[in-house]
Each structure stands twice: as C-alpha cells, then as structure tokens.
Amino acid sequence: MANEPKENADSGHFSAAYDLESGEQTKAHYASWADSYDREVSEENAYAQPVRVAEMVGRFVSDTDALILDAGCGSGLSGTALAASGFRHLHGCDFSQEMLAKAAEKGVYAKLFAADLNAGLPDVDSQTFDVVTCVGVFSFGHVEPDACDELLRVLKPGGFLIIALNDPFWQRGDLASKIEQLEGDKRVIVRAKEFGDHLPGHNVMGWVIALEKTS
Ligand SMILES: C[S@@+](CC[C@H](N)C(=O)[O-])C[C@H]1O[C@@H](n2cnc3c(N)ncnc32)[C@H](O)[C@@H]1O
After folding, report:
1. Residue of the nearest CA to atom 17 in ligand 1?
2. 120 and 93 in contact (C-beta within 8 Å)?
3. The predicted structure's pLDDT at residue 50
4. How far, in Å, is the centroid of ligand 1 from the Cα of 73?
5. By residue range, what is the domain housing residue 71?
6. Which residues have a Cβ under 8 Å from the Cβ of 87 and sit 6 or more positions away?
7. Domains held by the chain: number
8. Is residue 3 part of a domain?
9. Which parts of the chain have pLDDT scores under 50?
10. Cα(175) to centroid(ligand 1), Å
11. Does the pTM exceed 0.85?
12. Spatial distance between the Cα atoms of 56 and 54, rounded to a whole number of angstroms
C-alpha cells in the first residue's frame, strides 16, 4: 500500500483508489463506487478540488459562454462546481458508464460521452474547446500523463487545460516531467500551479495547475 494516504484510510473505496494498477480495475472500482461516491467524497470528506478548479477557471476565463470539456467528469461533482460558477456550456466524458449515469442526473452537462482518455478522443475534432478540466483523473491506474497531448489537441489555441490531482500521484514525478516537456516545447505556458486541499477528510493534499495552450 505504498501510495495510500497517511490517515483515515478506513473506507474500502478510498484505500483501494490509491492502489489501482489497470484500467479494468479502475472501471470496476467506479462501477461499485458510483452510488455512494458523492456522499463519501463530497459530503463526508469535503472533496475540495471541484471548487478549486472552478475558481481557477474563473480566474483565467471571464466568458461564461466558454465551451468546457470536463474530461473524466465522473459523477459530475466537477461540472456541478463549474455550473455553480456560472459556466453554462459543459460537455463531460468518462470511461465509467456508471459514473456517467450519475453525471447525467446532475443536469449540468449539455453532452456526455464515453471515452478512455488513455486511448484518445477520436470522435472529438481538434481545437473544439475553450477549456478542458481534468479533476481527480490523473492518478494511479487512472489516466497517464501522455493523455495531456490529446487534451491539448481538442483545446483551442489560447485555451486552458486545468488539471487537479492528488499529491501522492504528483510525487510520482512523470506528470511534472510531461508538463516540463510541454513547456520546453513551447506548447503550453504554466499560468498557475497551486498546492492545497484535495480530500481534507483523509488528509490528502493536491495540486491545481493551469496550462495555457500556445498554438
Ligand atoms: C476521482 S474520480 C473524479 C471524477 C470527477 N472529475 C470529480 O472530480 O469528482 C476519477 C474519474 O476518472 C475516471 N477515469 C479513470 N480512468 C479513466 C480513463 N482512462 N478514461 C476516462 N476516465 C477515466 C473514473 O471513471 C472516475 O470517474
């Protein structure tokens, strides 16, 4: 359990979430978690990242008509926070049908579709979105850093990719390396990188990172 958060790992879903190793394990994990995810994550453990990301989007994007893809939308907590901040044009995708069904119940997404972010977004045209958010999705057994290429492809030049992730995965190092590479290649400008709460109920900290696509 090398990746386990340090305290309060008392729930099977939370402790298992940091030890997932494959997409199949991860899909099964969210299939069994979908019904109780919002209660356990948001209500009982004060999941902070959806609001942190909505605030970050609002800092860089003043137009509430911006078209936003919430990549790895899960049950829709991240989209709900964006909608509460006034953003009206939200699409969401996820590879868990069970989580997508919960997201549909939120009523904040104009479009929801199934996609494995490690395999790309073949049905999405390049330069479609003004903003792509990816909240709690880069993690162990979830989405790998190379998915940034595809998230940037579907983003318009000058658009923002906003990533929120847990600190244990950030410490693995390869997302940081990927972002350094993108920055070195002048494909993105890092506009913000902030440490703060991720899941306070389990003492997990995390990052919110804002990348502006250059071209
Ligand atoms: C911790 S949840 C976060 C959901 C939502 N963004 C939030 O902040 O509540 C992680 C989500 O990533 C999705 N996910 C994991 N791996 C994925 C992949 N390879 N492609 C698409 N979605 C994936 C899971 O199904 C799950 O809904």
Report:
1. 142
2. no
3. 98
4. 6
5. 12-213
6. 54, 57, 64, 66, 68
7. 1
8. no
9. 1-10
10. 16
11. yes
12. 5
